[in-house]
Amino acid sequence: MSGHSKWSNIKRKKEANDKVKSKQFTKISRLITMSVLENNGVTNPDNNFKLRLAIDQAHQANMPKDSIVRAIEKGSGDNKINLKEMIYEAYAPHGVALIIYATTDNSNRTSSEIKTKLERGGGKLVSQGAVSYLFRRCAMIMLDKTKYNDTITLSLVEKLGAFDIKEDEINTIIYFPFMNIHKFNDLQVIYQIKTTADLYYQPLTTVFLDKSEDINSVVDVISSLEELDDVHIVFANYV
Predict the structure, then answer these.
(1) Residues 6 or more apart whose Cβ sits within 8 Å of residue 91
(2) Which residue of 21, 32, 78, 120 sits 20 to 30 Å from the alpha carbon of 55, by its own alpha carbon?
(3) Does the domain formed by 134-203 have CATH 3.30.70.980?
(4) Residue 11 has pLDDT above 60, yes or no
């Protein structure tokens, strides 16, 4: 019985991991397709920096090459689909502001699903502009300190026009204007940087949560939103 139980646990764990990976691939596929659609069907990553960033994410996630190709094809030619980028604004419990980044082929469905998740968790969807002023839209790169020295970091800060830097024991995080994200492509080659630059909404005003149950209630709402296929990432202003 114990052997059977062990195998069942392994099987369930594998199925759960496969499900997570499949959902991750779905989200990355949409980013790839969206980057092609936004750039008038340009399928060459050398001429479409957003596509290059999305493909970099796909490679980091070990996404199969044929899946990447199919996602690109959905953004151009006869296979082009109707997909658009959506930014939703919301409040989680305890006055925590949220920016929800999504891509969808049916905005009514996506809005309804997001609204339901928020309300179940004690949050609410709000109108455009209600919380966006609490964030700064920018780009972010995270550098492993053991791989990139101070000279490279300072050069990136200067050439990308960075406005903020944060550090922990492992990483240096650089925040810079999103309009400069195309410059990072050339710098990746020069300094052989493997990490990618990501869209980020940096909080300008934060909400301090000192109770674990309050933090958990916010995290639960964010997690439930990010489980949706249409939602790629949720930014929040709590600390």
Answers:
(1) 97, 98, 123, 124, 126, 131
(2) 78
(3) yes
(4) no
